[in-house]
What does this fold into?
Amino acid sequence: MKQSSLRDTTHSLAEMATNGRWALATAWGICPKVLTWVAAISIVRALLPAALALTARGLVNAAIGAIASGDGSARSIFPWLTLGFGLTLLEGLSNLANKLFKTRLRNEVEVELTSTVLAQASRLEVGYFEDPESQDRLARAQHQPSERVASFVTESTDTIGSALNVASLVSVLAYIEPLTILVVAVFSIPYLFFQLRLANSRYQLDVARTTKRRWSDYFVSTLTGRETVSEIKILNLAGMLTERFRSLMREFRDQDQKLYRKSFRSGALFISLTTSAIYALFFHVGIQVVRGNLTLGDLAIFGGAAMRLRNGLASLIGSAGQLKDDVLHLHDVRGFLEESPVDEAAHEPSLPTATRSEIAFDNVSFSYPGSSEKALDKVSFKIAAGETVAIVGENGAGKSTLLKLVARLYDPDSGAILFDGLNLRNVDRKSIFQQISFVFQTFTRFEATAGENIAYGDCETLLGNPEGIRGVASQAGIDAIIEGLPQGYETRLGRRFGEADLSGGNWQKLAVARAFSRKSSLLILDEPTSNLDARAEFELFSRFRELAHGRTAILVSHRFSTVKMADRILVLHDGKIVESGSHDQLMAERGTYAQLYELQQRQGRR
It folds into this structure.
């Protein structure tokens, strides 16, 4: 048992050292000059109290000597006064400089490290963001990562500075009263270990409440989000959701208060015991002065330095506890940044620039992370280059999943997906994305100008190219809508920061225009007309046939008036392809497709 505990402690210390080195290396790589100034200022500030104490001792002894000799001039005390003035001025300026450079360090680290976290997130596969455990890891990594690194660096310098401060003061005081060393050791070491254990408890509590913290964020966003507030009011859910939020906050409050009480009790005990012990030593020093064994200067320096020592000890132990807390949290940040970005494997070749986009599924099966149910089960089919294929089926049949596999947002569990004969699993994701225009069922409404919402489809070509944007808008048939906005293509859209908003149908048209702005060989449309009426849908797909000419296109839609325009239709049921053919062929077979089509026709006539 003891050996196991020793191994755990050794492993914990090694992990802390690794996290600490990583944080220091990260800060040094971002702003080495600023970090150097922070360290230098911390050392200067740490040595100043002892220097001031020695100066005070010299001043008092010089004054007493001048009085005893009958010398009424200030020559003997002037050098000490000058030195004290300089050191006091330096102490005040160093405090200001310390604040200046620490603030700059935090700002520099925040810019670079937060950007690094976001860049890492953009490299991870989509499945990572849909797994609850991964979301917990991401939440901990996102929780002020730059603040943790900057805090560790500054706390490291503060800890070193506090250690130097304590060591210098102990040296001065031990010269006058050697028992000072014993007092410091007896009272400080237990308090230090308590603070380190308390830091570990805080971290464990923080990890344990990660999911609940995400729940609290969910309640806030649901109760205040424009997409949800109307339904919340109609269903009268605000009171219930607010109470659930309040319950979580109460739980957090009670847990924090328990730790704060522990910290307060231990701190109060430390202050009481060290103050009592220091004054006992002070009394002893006073006796020695009266007996002539020590000077009045020794008494003066001991009184001032002893109180500084107690404050220095509290600062040192507090910095050590915070340092451990930061080191433990750095494990989450470092772990997230070291997650393997699957789309950047060095061995993965890129798709050629010119592709035909011939797609083939060979016995493909797939289940979502954490689910034992197969979303697709041994699916096989081919799509010829330039062919338009529609995929239909009931909800949950696997249609959207199939599209995401084609785009390599996921990799299949088994089987292979071939793109122009290349296995997508072995092809760099970025090169695949460059060949795909994808209109998602839950498309993004970018808080940006109308022109930027189109240009985002091909940033490198269209951003800063108003003529190109207008050309795309004209081709997609949305130019008249945009020109009717208050500032035309420069109108900022959205309800968070925008000056105008669009209807659901017009947002969807904008998303389609964004997709067509890409010079891609494969078009993927997942319910691209769900927000459009029948007339707008017909106009869109008439235009779609023109824009998709020469490209391979895969379409998912519940509207069979749209589906029948495709060259071929695949029917999915329970994750399997059950029918394939043109509209007329499938109607003649009188199978699943014909039943769904006739059911929709009857509903449309009602």
Q: What stands out?
A: The longest strand covers residues 359-366. The domain at 446-519 is CATH 3.40.50.300 (Rossmann fold). The chain has a mean pLDDT of 82.
